[in-house]
Amino acid sequence: MGKAITLIPGDGVGPEVADAALKVMESAGASIEPDTQTAGIAALDQRKTPLPEETLDSIRRTGVALKGPLTTPVGSGFRSINVAIRREFDLYANIRPALSLAPGGRYEDIDLVLIRENTEGLYVGVEHFIGLEGDPRAAAESVMIVTRFGAERIVRYAFEYAKSRGRKKVTLAHKANILKCTQGLFLDVGREVAEEYEGVVDFEDRIIDATAMHLVVNPHQFDVLVMENMFGDILSDLMAGLVGGMGMAPAANIGKDAAMFEAVHGSAPDIAGQGVVNPTAFILSACLMLDHIGQGEVAERIRTALLAVFEKGGVLPSDLGGSASTQEFTQAVIGALA
Ligand code: NAD
Fold first, then answer.
1. pLDDT tens column, 33-67
2. Do 213 and 327 share a structural domain?
3. Which residues line ligand 1 at a C-beta cut-off of 6 Å?
4. How many folded domains does the chain comprise?
5. For strand 250-254 and strand 259-263, is the pairing parallel, antiparallel, or unpaired?
6. Pair 211, 178: CB distance under 8 Å
């Protein structure tokens, strides 16, 4: 019996990338038992709710979800289904690696990991309009929430991640020079946690805007980066751009009792159903899942096969300048498995 996982193929290109990842995992010898569930538009059509209780129950049971992109139906009562799942399971650490695999990246040999706080910051959505002189939307206000608890557990996660993988440095990116309370607290807590790892993992802190510039000019000076929610959202897309774009960006969302793995990209409605989506980001997300469930050797076999296909060239998806269909590319990866 393989490890039970919850599989949510998702909306738009989701079923296409999920199919590709399942075929690759099966061929690579992954030992998993997918329990297929729905969410998003697909669930609204079939179950009349975008987030069925059965889907949540399945994740509670398996503790691991591999999830395709979800479209949040307008008027469903959810701000975002993705955020609702992250909240339900308190998936506080969002791990976004950027690894050079394919041609078309700006640099070679990039191997960065951004660890983004996933539950606090401006994205808690505490915001409202303020009416003035007959204009109901004369102003708008949003609250950034940072707690000592939240800052400490994410920075600690970043250090433990670096330590357990032999990585050398953690960079904490912030805006404490302007946001003295919220970002100041995040930085202070970060410095306290860093002291516990002195001599094991190096630490530096940098202003977020300068970090963005340095990531573009000389990304190799970084290793593991940790920051609050919105900064992480923005910089992880920047990092995806360094290694070939959204088709190459995987993510893990980790909590104490559950973990969810997904590509960073959305449902790509403009290319859904055309058989041309690049499945690499989702396959790499599946690899992060395999690492998490103790099947890291299978994950490494898949990453090596992806690299071999990219190095050989010839069979590339269209977002990387090629003309291969999703199926042709998937078959090439399967063919390259050692
Ligand atoms: P998107 O990532 O779906 O697409 C942006 C562009 O990138 C499109 O042109 C698309 O064709 C292209 N693209 C994305 N992934 C690709 C891939 N793997 N291969 C080739 N091309 C790819 O972003 P969007 O258009 O802003 O969002 C579409 C929908 O997805 C929205 O409903 C949004 O809410 C949802 N979304 C979901 C998630 C998630 O489930 N985690 C994340 C982001 C967006």
1. 999 999 999 898 888 899 999 999 999 999 999 99
2. no
3. 69-72, 82, 246-247, 262, 265-271, 277-278, 281, 319
4. 2
5. antiparallel
6. no
Both 106 and 250 in one domain: the answer is: yes
What is the per-residue pLDDT across 247-279, written as a single tens digit (0 to 9) for each? 899 999 999 999 999 999 999 999 999 999 999
Catalytic residues: 123, 175, 209, 233
Q: For residue 115, is it within any domain?
A: no
CA of 73 to the centre of ligand 1 (A): 15
The domain boundary, picked from 206, 227, 242, lies at: 242
Kindly list the distances between the CA atom of residue 244 and the CA atoms of 98, 221, 250, in Å, as whole numbers in the listed order: 9, 19, 12
User: Residue 208 maps to which CATH number?
Assistant: 3.40.50
Say yes or no: 237 and 134 in one domain.
yes
Residue 7's DSSP bridge partners are 36, 66
Give dist(CA 265, CA 282) in Å, integer.
9
Q: Which of 242, 262, 279 is the last residue of a domain?
A: 242
What tokens does 77 get?
């009562």
